[in-house]
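User: I'm preparing a small set of examples for a lab meeting where we compare how different chains pack in three dimensions. I only have the primary sequence for this one, and I'd like the structure in token form so I can line it up with the others. Please keep the answer compact; I'll paste it straight into my notes.
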Amino acid sequence: MRINRMQYIVEYFGKDVPKKLATMDLNLVYVSKKQKYAIVYCDVSKGEKELLKQLQNVKGFKSVKESLFYDENVNIWVF
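Assistant: Understood. Below is the structure token output for the 79-residue chain.
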């Protein structure tokens, strides 16, 4: 079985967004406080729309987009 994941870049301008990302059901990989973006991995089945739906009401949230540097080899095989 293969777990398909996608890498997303979450842009923000407030301090609440990284805290909210840490509590969500995804993998928070990197947070840049200076450039104000975070890199997260999320299941493809959940997708970008689900991530947007959860973050729209968070103060300071700006946008979500797929990462251009995503590597297909990062997907996990579960036996």
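A couple of notes for your slides: Helices lie at 16-23, 47-55. The mean pLDDT is 84.

User: Perfect, thanks.
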